[in-house]
Specification:
Two copies of one chain form a homodimer.
Chain A lengths: L1 E10 L18 E10 L2 E7 H5 L7 E4 L4 E4 L1 E3 L11 H8 L4 H6 L4 H10 L2 H17 L2 E7 L6 H17 L3 E9 L10 H18 L5 E6 L6 H13 L3 E6 L7 H7 L4 E4 L5 H10 L2 E4 L1 H6 L8 H6 L5 E2 L13 H12 L3 H7 L2 H6 L17 E4 L6 H4 L6 E6 L2 E2 L6
């Protein structure tokens, strides 16, 4: 049994095990001088410190969180952290003024990461991914969705999905896998995207489903990648195999992706930088959760952030995620995403906390397991070096997360 | 004797002990599989690992930096990290859409931090500042300039300057103090700024000089703060007392501050978001170093970053700094500033490294002591969790700094 006592703020997010929207987004269920009790890896009680202290037995391990915020571990609902290599050369080129699209046209971008990822063994890919899993944990992420999409052949996609599963099994970071075979048209199909789409539908989807390597299927619906019809085609097939859907839509251009997400009842529509009012209304009608990824706007030096305020006003249960990837968002740090949301997108600190915990958990179909400190849930929580949760949004560029607990056990090895 | 071996890149910045400009900014003096030797707290040799290994004696402590970048500690040339309280309420108000100026007018902003700082004892102020010094060290800053300016009475300004000195004496963070009595017009002089300027000149400057509590004098030259004539008046008096000059200019409006910095031969002109071509030309003529502070542009949600490329093209020896302060730039993290410089201001990663090490050291008159890994300098260096120095700019929102050494000793206690 483990007790945490004297948190200056115990940020519980206690409440219904579902996504929150509207004014609920700011209801963090804060208990001052709060404490919690952990039994068998799960939270058994939350309350005032004196109440929790009264439940402790002589052998209970007690952690004094005085002067600290204690909160649920972050749930990062959109990442591509399993890849090989880096994109440092692309990065320098962007500093010299080249655009993401220009770099992609001359063979940089996703394609260069595909080449690097194909070239490594599963073991080498695992080594690289474990290091990044350590970075995520260190910055407070205890559950991460992770996508394939840098393989683009059956075997390479399966290799990535196996690594995602092994990260979940071999490190404290819980993973939820998404199959993203439709991330880009691979070079060998450059002039025949239809054949690649057929390969995804006829060969990849059945295999991934049979091996139970992913819960979600995603498509990069964008000019030059997969158009609306191809996207619909892939995702309808995915549904028939039992996958739930996440979608990359309206990042660089407004191609009607948000409306398609609504039509298909996707769990999430992600990016949405270019989505218009009609798209937002469509998402609201179908209760699709928007996943906002300000890290990629920042890192690309773009100015147009997704319109979070309009989405919140429309009643959408917004999520914030890192988009951790080597090209457009090389960050493992949810606190940085919270800073971006508040300073660049005018979300409140409280909204940003809900968007990175309970709402993200709900989008991954895990709201009964994680995302809040409700009794019965996994004891995934953070002890942060600040007295007020708003400081997590206020101080930027470094992490206030000091201790990370997963299923009640402190994570001590972040090296992977 | 201490040896560090097998750095994937030893980023030495070896070369002349002066500010670098133009193409020199990208000459980082990188030694692959590099090593260094420390004797009596100073660097005695740098070179290839095998060469350094050959100089080790049996009792030499050897650190294997395999797979890591080793580089000089960051020098943060513009901070206001000694203050009491925080500005969380202002921060939330900005997220709701209020401007920095609106918040200042209704009593928030600098004035609220002045009230909080006046209200605490020197000891309490020291406790708060030590925590932040720990954050800076943890993110790789080994020397920080620090300004007064939240006291605005003689005794409170002296209190802050004593805390700055004590941070340097009682923690591993080396400090360089700047007197910034002219940071804002205090409430009690709201309708009589001339009298406050007189008090600075006649009472504060002589006292700070006599007690040797600061090396530099600074003025916030801005509409609503101190105008050009008042600024000139204060700084000319400061010069007569032997202070060197730093200046806050052209942050919110272009008031001709850069030209005044040139006229007065200031060491630095800081901010410069609104500086025009004439101002840049004036700085170049007088060899004033520009201190660029992208953290405050970011945190205020503004869009106009200082024009680094034009300044570099004009031959200026640019510096990047955090502007660590509770209102407009709540960050302790130089890696975040490097990320901002590269992604938002189109500086190259190499330029950003020079701007945060040797150039910053030169602006503080310490280029013979710190800012590079040249033999003879203090052994202030970092071991970073990456193979390529460009990764320090690439990954963002968290720090790759793993171990920090000051005068050859590893910093182990960041808690203050």
């Amino acid at each position: 049994m483990l007790a945490v006592l004297h948190a200056s703020q115990l940020v519980t997010l206690a409440g219904p095990a579902r996504a929150r929207s509207g004014p609920e987004l700011t209801e963090l269920g804060i208990i001052s001088d709060g404490g919690l009790l952990v039994e068998n890896g799960r939270i058994s009680r939350i309350g005032k410190s004196d109440e929790i202290a009264g439940l402790c037995r002589p052998q209970t391990e007690v952690i004094d969180a005085g002067g600290c915020v204690v909160m649920p571990g972050f749930v990062d609902a959109h990442t591509h952290f399993v890849f090989a290599g880096d994109r440092l050369d692309d990065f320098e080129a962007r500093a010299r003024g080249e655009s993401y699209e220009q770099i992609a046209r001359r063979g940089g971008g996703i394609r260069s990461t595909v080449a690097a990822t194909r070239a490594v063994s599963e073991e080498e890919l695992l080594v690289q991914a474990k290091k990044r899993a350590g970075w995520m944990l260190q910055n407070g992420t205890t559950t991460a969705e992770a996508k394939s999409g840098y393989g683009l052949t059956i075997e390479d996609e399966l290799k990535i999905l196996r690594v995602i599963r092994r990260i979940g099994a071999e490190t404290p970071l819980q993973t939820v896998a998404t199959f993203l075979g439709a991330h880009a048209i691979p070079d060998e199909f450059r002039h025949d995207s239809a054949s690649y789409v057929s390969q995804i539908i006829e060969q990849m989807l059945p295999r991934v489903a049979r091996e139970e390597l992913a819960e979600y299927c995603d498509v990069f619906c964008e000019h030059g990648y997969f158009d609306i019809d191809q996207t619909r085609h892939v995702l309808k097939a995915a549904k028939q195999h039992g996958f739930k859907l996440r979608m990359h839509v309206d990042q660089l251009t407004n191609g009607g992706g948000a409306r398609l997400a609504a039509e298909l009842n996707a769990a999430t529509a992600d990016h949405l930088e270019q989505t218009d009012a009609d798209g937002i209304a469509a998402l609201a009608t179908s209760q699709v959760q928007p996943v906002l990824l300000p890290g990629s706007v920042y890192a690309l030096g773009a100015k147009k952030y997704p319109n979070a305020r309009t989405m919140i006003d429309a009643g959408l249960a917004v999520i914030l995620a890192t988009d951790f990837n080597p090209g457009s968002s090389p960050t493992a740090a949810m606190p940085m995403i919270i800073s971006l949301a508040v300073t660049q997108m005018k979300m409140s600190p409280a909204e940003a906390i809900s968007a990175t915990t309970i709402n993200a958990a709900a989008s991954l179909n895990r709201a009964t397991e994680i995302g809040s400190l409700d009794p019965g849930k996994r004891a995934n929580f953070l002890i942060c070096d600040c007295r007020d949760y708003r400081e997590l949004a206020y101080w930027f560029g470094f992490s206030l997360v000091r201790e990370v607990f997963v299923a009640g056990k402190q994570v001590t090895n972040f090296a992977g």
